[in-house]
Every structure is written in structure tokens, then in C-alpha cells.
């Protein structure tokens, strides 16, 4: 499987490829002037699309929980060196325009402590119900991710 990224502007296409390769380690292949993302990136896109369709991404900052989870994994299949690179990946290349701005994502990332699934949150919105919703969101992401791998 591969995700094909097509842009009307060849410069944007090259910039996107360079960004994905440099900041996320994506393997970029050019076929008929189209860019292909790795199967891992394609699976992440599928999962995010599904979470959005299921209305589980209730807030723009919910996307940060996925990044934090991915960065905790030891397999290094998809790692983001900064919230800004993750935002560009999600917003610009994956087309998820409901994602919060970089500053909001960064703020919420700071509220999380611990390792998944034992995360705790220190923000004012993080009562028990909200904390469980965030953890369950990531659990659903994991469920979808591995279901499509089978």
C-alpha cells in the first residue's frame, strides 16, 4: 500500500517530499510524477480518517495524543521531531484541517505525563472522564491501526 500525494505546484510537491523525508524519515518514491508515502504513513492517515468519521477527534488538540503515542513507540516507523513537523504532516499532507494550531498542540503536549496507557494530564479540562476519553482515543487508533495490518 502507498499514499499518493499530488500537488498542482511542482515546488510544493518537492517541498512536501523533502519535509517528509527530512523530518519523518518517510521513504519517497516518484512514480509518474506522483509522490508515494510509506505504508506506515498511509495507515496513520487511514486511522485518522476513521477516527474523524467516528467523531472521536472531538477537539483540535486531540491529534496531539496520536503524535505522543507514536513517538513513544520503539519501532521508529513514524517519529516526529517537533509538533510543527507533525502539524504539517497532519494538516498539509494528510488534509486534516480540524487539527489545532501548533501552539495549542504544544501546550497540550506539555500537560501529558507518564507512558501510555498510564498517561496522566495536568490541564484544567482533564477530569477523570476527559482523561479516559483521551486514552480511549489512542486505544481506538491502535485498534484500527493493527486491524488493517492483519
Radius of gyration: 15 Å
Which shape, going by the Cα principal axes? globular
Unreliable stretches covering 5 or more consecutive residues: none
Helix content class? 40-55%
Count all strands and give the number: 5
In short:
With about 150 residues, the protein is mostly helical. The protein has six helices and five strands, in the order βαββααααββα.
What do these coordinates show?
There is one protein chain. Helix 2 (39-53) crosses helix 6 and helix 3 crosses helix 5 (102-111). The protein has 150 residues and is mainly alpha-helical. The chain has 6 helices and 5 strands, in the order E-H-E-E-H-H-H-H-E-E-H. The strands form 2 sheets. Strands 1-3-2 form a 3-stranded antiparallel β-sheet. A two-stranded antiparallel ribbon has the order 4-5. The radius of gyration is 15 Å and the shape is globular. It has one domain. The mean pLDDT is 85.
List the helices and strands and how they pair.
Blueprint lengths: L2 E3 L4 H15 L4 E3 L2 E4 L1 H15 L9 H10 L10 H11 L8 H10 E2 L6 E2 L6 H20 L3
Antiparallel strand pairs: 1-3, 2-3, 4-5
Helix pairs in contact: 2-6, 3-5
Name the features.
150 residues, 5 strands, mainly alpha, two-stranded antiparallel ribbon, three-stranded antiparallel β-sheet
Amino acid at each position: 500500500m502507498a499514499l499518493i500525494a499530488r500537488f498542482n505546484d511542482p515546488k510544493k510537491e518537492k517541498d512536501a517530499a523533502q519535509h517528509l523525508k527530512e523530518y519523518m524519515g518517510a521513504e519517497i518514491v516518484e512514480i509518474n510524477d506522483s509522490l508515494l508515502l510509506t505504508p506506515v504513513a498511509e495507515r496513520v492517515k487511514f486511522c485518522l480518517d476513521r477516527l474523524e468519521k467516528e467523531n472521536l477527534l472531538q477537539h483540535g488538540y486531540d491529534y496531539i495524543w496520536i503524535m505522543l503515542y507514536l513517538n513513544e513507540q520503539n519501532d521508529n516507523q513514524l517519529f516526529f521531531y517537533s509538533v510543527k513537523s507533525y502539524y504539517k504532516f497532519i494538516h498539509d499532507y494528510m488534509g486534516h484541517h480540524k487539527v489545532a494550531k501548533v501552539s495549542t498542540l504544544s501546550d497540550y503536549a506539555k500537560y501529558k505525563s507518564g507512558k501510555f496507557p498510564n498517561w496522566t494530564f495536568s490541564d484544567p479540562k482533564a477530569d477523570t472522564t476527559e482523561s479516559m476519553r483521551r486514552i480511549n482515543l489512542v486505544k481506538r487508533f491502535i485498534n484500527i491501526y493493527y486491524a488493517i495490518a492483519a
